[in-house]
Amino acid sequence: MKYTIEKSASSPAYLQLYCQMRDDIINQVYPFGAKLPSKRLLADETGLSLITIEHTYALLCEEGYAESRERSGYYVSFHVGESFSAPAAFSPVLTCVATSSSSAHSLSYPLLARTIRKVLSDYGENILEKAPNGGVPVLREEIRKYLQRSRGITATAEQIFIGSGSEYLYGLIPALLGRDRIYAIESPSYHKIQQVYDSCDASVEMLPLTSDGIESTALRTTGASVLHITPYRSFPSGVSASATKRHEYLRWADTFDRYIIEDDYESEFSISSKPQETLFAHTAKGNVIYMNTFSQTIAPSLRVAYMVLPEHLIPVFRKKLGFYSCTVPTLEQYVLARLLADGDFERHINRVRRNKRKSMSETLI
Predict the structure, then answer these.
(1) Phi (first) and psi of residue 115, to 5 degrees
(2) Could you check whether 13-76 and 109-349 share the same CATH topology?
(3) What's the pLDDT tens digit per position in 273-331?
C-alpha cells in the first residue's frame, strides 16, 4: 500500500485518494471481500486527516466499491470475475422510485431571461445564421470542458454532436451502427427507446433488470451487439447500476464489434457527493457512445441533447449522417454555451443536489 497525495493538484485530497484506492480495488490489489486499510493507517501514511479519510471511504461506499461493517471496518464489495455475477432478487414495482417534478429541477426564469438578453446583445444577427451540422462550435467546446471537469470524460469538441432531444439522437444510432444488429435494452425502460428503435426497423431484445442492473444471465446470453443502458436511475424502475455491474457491462462489450449506448439521463442530480462515474471514461475499447440532455437539467421545453462518439466513429458518422442539418436553433445553442461558460449551469446543478440531500435528510429525521 503506497498512496501519495499531490498537495498542489487541482483535485482535492479525498478525491485523489479515492481514485487510487478505486483503481486498486478494480485491479484486485484488494479482492472482493478483502478488508481495506483502517482510517488511522491511511491517515498516518498519507498525512491526511481522519475526516478526509472518512470522506474517501464514504465515496467508495456510495459508488459501490466498498461497504462499511459496524465495529469491523471497510470491506471490498466490488466483484471482478471471468463469469458474470449472480443475479439479485428484484421487483420493479417494489423498487420503483417516484420521479421528481421536472419543474422543480428547472433553471430559474430570471437567470434564463438575463442570459438570453446577453446572448442577443453579444451575438446580434449571428443568431440568425445556420448552425454547422454537428452544432455551434462554442457549445461543443463548452460541453467538452464541462464533461472533462465534471464527468471525467476526455474527448474533443469534434466528438460531440448536438440534436433536438434524446429521441432524435436515439434515431441516429441504428443508422450509424447498422439496422441489421440486435439492440438490447433494459426491461422495464423508458418506452420511447424501444419505440424509436422499432420505428427504425431495428431488432430489439428486452433484458430484465435486477436490483443493481441488467440480470447477468440475460446479459451473457443475449444475441445483441449493442447494449442501450441508463446506468443512473433507470426509468421507471429507479434502478442505478452498481460499480460491479457497470464494469460487467464493459466486460460484455470487450467482444469485437459490440457497443454500449450510455444514456446518462438525470445523473447530474445524484445526491452523491460526486457524480457517478461514466462508462465512457472507463472504456479502453472506444466502444461507448455517451448521451445526455439539457431537457431535465434546465427546462423540459429546451429540446437539446448531445452525444459523444468514440473517435473512430466520427468519419463513419460524417459519411452516413453528415448531410443532416443541426436541428437545434442557433440562439438556444449560444444560450447554453453561455450558461456553461459562466458557471451558471453548474451552480444550478449543485443547488438542486443540495436541496435534494437536505430534503432526504429531513425525511429520514
Answers:
(1) -65, -40
(2) no
(3) 566 779 999 998 899 999 999 988 898 889 999 999 999 999 999 999 999 999 999 99
CATH class of 109-349: alpha beta
Bridge partner residues of 163 (DSSP) = 305
If DSSP codes are grouped into helix, strand and coil, which group holds residue 135? coil
Beta bridge pairs of residue 275: none
CATH label, 13-76, candidates 1.10.443.10, 3.40.50.300, 3.40.50.150, 1.10.10.10: 1.10.10.10
CB-based burial, 280-297: b 16+ in 10 Å, e otherwise: bbebeeebbbbbbbbbbb
Residue with cell 455475477: 85
Q: pTM value?
A: 0.79
Cα–Cα distance list, 154 to 63, 94, 280 (Å):
20, 37, 9
Task: Work out whether the CA dihedral 334, 335, 336, 341 comes out positive or negative.
Answer: positive
Taking alpha carbons only, the member of 342, 340, 338 closest to residue 297 is: 340
| Domains in the chain: boundaries | 13-76, 109-349
